[in-house]
Recover the amino acids of this structure.
């Protein structure tokens, strides 16, 4: 059995600078916990069979839905249900945690040049 | 489809005072995200088939394992693998998030008077 280690979010976010490339920092059951930095506009997408949790740890994130915008600050989270179209937008850099099933693609139903396979850090 | 809502951790932790009684604040896929306040010593226990993620959002938490102690502060997390015996201890009150499968009992393999069915807040 692998010995559990304490994972420091501040340390993990200090290990990378690129945007929109989620990094796996922990795994449990069928899920990955990922750290990601975002800035600018992502694409509209949805996940067919997976709900997705986003917890903002730094900055202000907008998640556009088809009928409204969600505004998240540090210490705020949202679960986007499967199938729901959404588009993250950040004027300034935002740091957030994503909790997703291991099968989840960041661009959901839209594999394209922004599709990023998450790597461990 | 239920419209997603922004969940504020500070607001959720303000809704209760009791210790060792996890409250569900979000669900996704087969998992629940829970907020819990702890102080004092819990019991030794393990979860037979579920890994458990703990993220400290306030205070300092010790998680005793059979061969060492893990020390967690705000912004630090750990995944306790299934089957591993552990015992949380907090000298002063700690606020933390738990991510668990919906099937997880807080006292794991030891149903007793401290077993608490998580309620939504």
């Amino acid at each position: 059995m692998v010995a559990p280690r304490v994972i420091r979010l501040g340390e993990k976010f200090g290990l990378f600078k690129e945007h929109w490339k989620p990094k796996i920092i922990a795994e449990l059951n069928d899920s990955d916990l990922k750290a990601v930095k975002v800035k600018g506009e992502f694409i509209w997408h949805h996940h067919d069979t997976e709900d997705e949790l986003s917890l903002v740890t730094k900055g202000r994130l907008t998640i556009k839905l088809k009928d409204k915008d969600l505004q998240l600050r540090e210490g705020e989270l949202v679960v986007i249900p499967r199938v729901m179209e959404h588009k993250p937008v950040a004027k300034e850099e935002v740091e957030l945690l994503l909790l997703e099933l291991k099968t989840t693609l960041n661009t959901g139903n839209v594999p394209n040049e922004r599709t990023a396979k998450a790597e461990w850090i």
